[in-house]
What we know:
The chain has helices at residues 2-21, 26-31, 35-43, 50-58; strands at residues 64-73, 76-84, 90-96, 102-106. It has 107 residues and is of the alpha+beta class.
Amino acid sequence: MQKLINKYALWALAILAVSFLVPSSPAVAAQCLGAEEVRVAVSQGRAKSLVEITQAANAVVSGDVIKANLCPAGGRLNYELVILSRQGNVTRLVLDAKSGKVLSVNQ
Length: 107
């Protein structure tokens, strides 16, 4: 039981550490959609759900999504994800929100 608790504590610390390493520009965050805007975009079919996008992302990079934003870009919507692998690697993915197609991968 103690090993399990330690494992979860280690993961929590890793996620916290990564959140400080992943820059989040206020200008970029201000351009991304809020929760209600995301819900509307998904319900109108302008974006896939985060579950569907996570499945598409995990086909490319295995790990946990620790950050997700839905942002306008060039007349369309993109999901910007940060994924933490089990090995502790951080990967940033940009996916087309409507199709789920991976547009870029940065490790």
